[in-house]
Design a protein that fits this description.
about 260 residues, alpha+beta, 2 domains, six-stranded mixed sheet, five-stranded mixed sheet, 2 helices, 18 strands, about 20% helix, globular
Length: about 260
């Protein structure tokens, strides 16, 4: 009887050892396979374009009027000065540019701190649309840019400006501007736009980002520009139209052979 008990106990011990061994093998197999599968998955299914373009390397800048949270401001009477504030991310260089109708604040124009900063405007004493734009970039491409418009000596209107069309065509093929447009280097690119509700004395359209022409006169409401790009980076073209009633913007992203 004792011999039978010893026999079954030894059988059980051997079985337990076999089960433990199988478990260890399975564990090692799973831990070895899953990292490989994860790597393979990442290789086969890379980031979507939208995520790739919004990655850590993409530059961005935001410009605003301190204390208001606004990018468009109507002043019924002249102001001595206002303070502008800009914030950046992944930026290597920034440039400010000033536009206007009857007057512009040239003290804003020039190199700006790529880490962000503050700026006190000049005296805003003329009845004019004062436009402040900022463009930033790094080695991977251009930011969309940003802007502030201060209308001095005007009441607020209710009919906002409206960009009715923004279209990109490459070698005569038209693309949807709501997603990145992929092109080849030295392709001929044409950007067209049209707008409405820009018939007031404070109406103005202007551009930031990668535009070859940085300023557009509001009296021309159907515009086309044709150009070529030669560097493999991200290009962004932002168009703004502003009046006493408000400001509107459209942006298109072009990626030459990147994605």
């Amino acid at each position: 009887m004792k011999e039978m008990d010893l026999f079954w106990k030894s059988k059980s011990a051997i079985l337990m050892l076999l089960i433990s061994g199988v478990g260890i093998v399975l564990f090692l197999g799973v831990t070895a396979v899953f990292p490989f599968k994860s790597t393979l998955f990442n290789m086969l299914y890379g980031k979507p374009i939208s995520q790739a373009l919004e990655g850590a390397s993409v530059p961005s800048v935001e410009l605003g009027i301190e204390g208001t949270g606004e990018k468009h401001l109507n002043l019924a009477s002249p102001e001595t000065s206002l303070k502008l504030v800009w914030k950046t991310s992944n930026v290597k260089s920034c440039t400010g540019k000033a536009w206007g109708l009857s007057e512009k604040d040239e003290s804003w124009s020039g190199i700006k701190d790529p880490n962000g900063g503050e700026f006190k405007t000049g005296n805003l004493t003329k009845n004019s649309a004062y436009v402040y734009t900022i463009d930033c970039a790094n080695e991977f491409g251009d930011a969309e840019g940003d802007s502030v418009v201060i209308n001095v000596g005007t009441p607020k209107l209710s009919q906002n400006p409206y960009i009715t069309l923004m279209e990109v065509s490459v070698n005569s093929e038209t693309f949807d501007v709501n997603k990145p447009v992929k092109v080849s280097l030295n392709d001929e690119i044409k950007i067209s736009w049209a707008s409405l509700n820009l018939n007031t004395s404070y109406s103005i359209c202007f551009a930031t980002g990668s535009w070859p022409t940085k300023y557009q006169n509001a009296s021309r409401t159907n515009i086309s520009e044709t150009f070529k790009i030669s560097d493999p980076k991200v290009y962004r073209y932002s168009l703004y139209c502003s009046s006493e009633a408000g400001i509107t913007r459209k942006t298109v992203t072009i990626t030459p052979g990147l994605i």
